């Protein structure tokens, strides 16, 4: 049956119910955006929710460009927000 | 070295059409493979919580769950025999050869648990049941976090058992907005408003057609009951013209539209304390594989590009069948019927069972049922058009292409000064549709904005033309080389 999963987001603890996606786990923890756009540095989170739009990209266990709506959260998973060069420069 | 598996029939998608097609084809004796990008069957319509963590879904968030359970029983029964199911894999390229079709697949969620399955599959017949996704129109602020596709919100609830926000506005057009709002309310969310751009009197000319599908009226009555119970305001002839917020949704501005679909000046209203918005303007069929294979397409009554099929769901490409939204957006009940027809036709046409070919004519009862559902879908499309004045709510700085951040102003300039009057030229001039989603989200809007009289078939087809269906890594492209070597060695 379902239990709590312990993972990290940007090196901070991320806890969610087993069976949720990375995107849902982030939303459940109050994180609504986790990426900045390349040109304008705008915040982005979930949009299409079914793997079509690629707005919700995150880095998962060192692999960049993973769709948060398609990847399921697993124990010990290391999730990082994908902040692009432009946004970093502007920050 | 990559491996290649061979089958009589390949089915792409395990939603309503795909489940029906796969089970039927397997029951007719064909060796069948079914490939789906999600990690379990059901598609978007019957998306449910992971079966290993939540084995007993009671279907409370679902419509027609019994049909799903029946199809799933048949599907699972076939799994032990002539059916193979590969979940969590995208088909990123389809090619037609003399002996059939070659499909290249990639894991749809590589991180965490990479889905097992062959990289390459060959099949004599192919049934594409790829479904569709919410059609979108840009609006100022639609790229703020908290704005989602209406279907995306529903998928989120069904897959995760939680809400992507607290107080919602659902907007767009079509009966699909109703179950989304009902799901939100039933799951404990507040729905500030459902904004339907159409005037429901649009159904009047089609009442006789609608009456032939009583199940839809019953479904509608159930939503009406849910709306009353949760006090959800349902506003017709109303659109969301702006989403407001600094780094996430905080409010929406609505306006009335007149009978010609133009926004009425002075009718604006502000809905505050909103943290989530769901948009849906009908659906876009997932058409890149049929288009890549050269299938004939047409613009349907809803303005969506769909595949052309005959009574057996056979496309213009020999051996290629299309079922569900890819052959015309019409909902799950129609998709199941089309899947049953296509699955049987594809299996009967394979050399494996010549005896079945004798009974290859489609079951007339199913053909009649499909015609009734299609007539209903047509009525629905005509009663819920995209409002004619939607372009008026764009501002020069409104994002149209979310991936490449191309604005309405960029598009207007390219049209005026660079003669970009179709989606393909617009792509070259502005980079619309050149990002991650390859125009899946902005394609319809860009086709409308570029064209003088809305989205032409040619423009929509140029958007759907994506030889590589989903982004793949360079290492996956390299495996194509390996495979050729493998083929040559086996020939010796």
Describe the 3D structure.
- The complex is a heterodimer of chains A (91) and B (492).
- By secondary structure, chain A is of the alpha+beta class.
- Chain A contains 2 helices and 7 strands; from the N terminus they run ββαβββββα.
- Chain A has a 5-stranded mixed beta sheet, with helices on one face.
- In chain A, strand 1 and strand 2 form a beta hairpin.
- The longest helix of chain A is centred in the N-terminal third of the chain and has 7 residues, at 22-28.
- Chain A is globular and about 40 Å long.
- Chain A starts with a strand and ends with a helix.
- Chain B is built from 15 helices and 21 strands.
- The A-B interface holds A 1-2, 17-21, 23-24, 27-28, 32-33, 37-40, 42-55, 57, 60-61, 63, 65-67, 69-74, 77 and B 37, 39, 44, 49-50, 52-54, 108-113, 133-134, 143-149, 151-153, 155-156, 159-162, 164, 247-248, 402-405, 435-437, 440-441, 471.
Q: In terms of topology, how is this protein built?
A:
The complex is a heterodimer of chains A (91) and B (492).
Chain A: E1 4-9, E2 12-17, H1 22-28, E3 35-36, E4 43-44, E5 57-60, E6 63-67, E7 78-81, H2 85-90
Parallel strand pairs in A: 1-7
Antiparallel strand pairs in A: 1-2, 3-4, 5-6, 5-7
Chain B: E1 4-12, H1 16-27, E2 32-36, H2 65-79, E3 83-87, E4 89-97, E5 100-107, E6 120-128, E7 132-134, E8 147-149, H3 150-160, E9 167-173, H4 177-186, E10 190-196, H5 207-211, H6 214-230, E11 234-235, E12 238-244, E13 251-256, E14 269-271, E15 276-281, E16 283-285, H7 288-292, E17 297-299, E18 305-307, E19 320-322, H8 332-348, H9 354-357, H10 364-383, E20 399-401, E21 406-407, H11 408-418, H12 423-430, H13 443-450, H14 457-464, H15 474-491
Parallel strand pairs in B: 1-2, 1-6, 2-3, 6-19, 8-15, 9-10, 9-15, 10-11
Antiparallel strand pairs in B: 4-5, 5-6, 7-16, 12-13, 13-14, 17-18, 20-21
Helix pairs in contact in B: 1-2, 1-8, 3-4, 4-6, 8-10
């Amino acid at each position: 049956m379902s239990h709590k999963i312990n993972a990290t987001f940007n090196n901070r603890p991320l806890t969610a119910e087993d069976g949720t996606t990375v995107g849902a786990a982030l939303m459940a923890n109050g994180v609504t955006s986790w990426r900045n756009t390349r040109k304008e540095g705008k915040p982005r989170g979930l949009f299409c929710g079914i793997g079509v739009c690629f707005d919700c990209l995150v880095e998962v266990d060192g692999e960049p460009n993973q769709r948060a709506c398609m990847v399921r959260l697993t124990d010990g998973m290391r999730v990082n927000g994908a902040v692009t060069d432009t946004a970093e420069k502007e920050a | 070295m990559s491996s290649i598996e061979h089958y009589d029939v390949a089915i792409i998608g395990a939603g309503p059409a795909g489940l029906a097609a796969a089970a039927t084809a397997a029951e007719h004796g064909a060796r069948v493979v079914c490939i789906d990008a999600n990690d379990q069957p059901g598609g978007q319509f019957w998306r449910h919580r992971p079966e290993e963590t939540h084995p007993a879904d009671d279907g409370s968030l679902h419509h027609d769950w019994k049909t799903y359970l029946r199809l799933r029983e048949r599907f699972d029964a076939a799994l032990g025999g002539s059916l193979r199911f590969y979940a969590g894999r995208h088909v990123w390229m389809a090619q037609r050869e003399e002996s059939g079709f070659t499909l290249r697949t990639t894991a749809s969620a590589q991180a965490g648990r990479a889905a097992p399955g062959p990289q390459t599959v060959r099949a004599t017949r192919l049934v594409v049941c790829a479904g569709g996704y919410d059609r979108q129109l840009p609006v100022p602020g639609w790229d703020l976090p908290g704005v989602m596709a209406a279907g995306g919100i529903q998928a989120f609830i069904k897959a995760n058992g939680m809400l992507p926000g607290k107080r919602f506005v659902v907007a767009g057009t079509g009966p699909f907005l109703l179950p989304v709002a009902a799901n939100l309310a039933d799951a404990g969310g507040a729905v500030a408003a459902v904004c339907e751009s159409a005037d429901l009197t649009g159904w009047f000319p089609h009442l006789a057609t609608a009456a032939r599908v009583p199940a839809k009226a019953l479904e509608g009555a159930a939503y009406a009951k849910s709306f009353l119970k949760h006090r959800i305001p349902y506003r017709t002839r109303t659109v969301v013209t702006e989403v407001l917020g600094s780094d996430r949704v905080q409010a929406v501005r609505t306006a009335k539209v007149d009978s010609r679909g133009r926004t009425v000046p002075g009718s604006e209203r502000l809905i505050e304390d909103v943290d989530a918005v769901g948009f849906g303007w009908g659906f876009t069929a997932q058409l890149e594989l049929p288009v890549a294979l050269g299938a004939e397409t047409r613009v349907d009554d809803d303005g969506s590009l769909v595949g052309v099929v005959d009574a057996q769901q056979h496309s213009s490409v020999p051996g290629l069948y299309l079922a569900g939204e890819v052959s015309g957006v019409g909902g799950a009940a129609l998709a199941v019927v089309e899947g049953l027809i296509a699955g049987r036709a594809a299996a009967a046409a394979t050399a494996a069972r010549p005896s079945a070919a004798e009974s290859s004519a489609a079951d007339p009862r199913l053909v009649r049922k499909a015609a009734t559902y299609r007539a209903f879908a047509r009525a629905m499309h005509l009663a819920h058009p995209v409002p004619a004045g939607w372009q008026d709510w764009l501002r020069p700085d409104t994002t149209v292409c979310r991936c490449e951040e191309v604005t309405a102003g960029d598009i207007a300039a390219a049209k005026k000064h660079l003669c970009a009057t179709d989606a393909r030229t617009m792509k070259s001039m502005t980079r619309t549709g050149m990002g991650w989603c390859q125009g899946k989200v902005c394609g319809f809007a860009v086709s409308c904005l570029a064209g003088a009289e809305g989205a032409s078939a040619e423009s929509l087809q140029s958007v759907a033309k994506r030889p590589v269906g989903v982004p793949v890594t360079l290492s996956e492209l390299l495996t194509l080389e390996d495979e050729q070597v493998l083929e040559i060695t086996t020939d010796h």
